[in-house]
Request: fold
Amino acid sequence: MGSHDPRGPVRRDRDTSADGDARVAVNGEVEVIFRREWGRAVAVVTRLTGDLALAEDAVAEAFAGAVGTWTDGRLPADPAGWLITVAKNKALDRIRRESRRSVKEEEATRLIFACCHPALDPGTRVALTLRSLCGLTTAEIARSFLVADATMAQRLVRAKRKIRDAAIPFRVPADRDLPERVQSVQRVLYLVFTEGHRATVGPGVIRRELCDEAIRLARLVSEWRPEDPETLGLLALMLLTDARRAARTTADGRLVLLADQDRGLWDSAQIAEGTRVLDRAIQARRPGPYQL
Reply:
């Protein structure tokens, strides 16, 4: 979230009608309030949230909303108070959304480790992850594994029963178990991404939703284990590979080989991010297959 310049422009309507003149007058008054009250509003919201950048964003949104709301030629009795109240509400809404997102991410991390428990065979770990975390249907997973729908349904039922009967915990494992468990998670996410990058089922060469989901989950694990170079290496591998997505197929869905791809279509921002992540991994001086 970037900071906002208190001198930033408030757009004036150039309508020459009477209503347009009223809007110009209101917008001009809002601009005066904007310049006069910016500092106080930011200070109030910062004291409430403890986050200056969040406060600046919320106040800027409140002022932008005022321009759109006060179009009838009338201002509220206490415009500065109105703006501060709106900014406070926007900041608190943002905090609540982020809090819910953090809880969801923590739940997803625990679910990853449950799906990738070593008590389950490797194929079942992938299938469970595709079903529970990526939202694929049993039929879609069955086609990926080249088995009948009923066969895959039975595998998933047995896997869930095994998790229940073995009392596999729905939590991040203890430190002593982490190396083996993280490797299992890495392998599963790599296979999910691979299925998305070069789909074995479906009408297209690429399954974008699987690529996106694998990258999202790899981000979660890398944020939880930022010191693990192989997790970072896996995330970098996904980002750098997926950066070519737009250039990998023709308009009618046919595969374009690397030598023939239009590099102007490669995602430069994603390449830059993947390079930064890989640099962080290399600094640990513990190379592994994903980094290599």
Summary: Confidence is low (pLDDT under 50) at residues 1-18. The radius of gyration is 26 Å. The chain has three domains: 18-102, 116-171, 173-292.
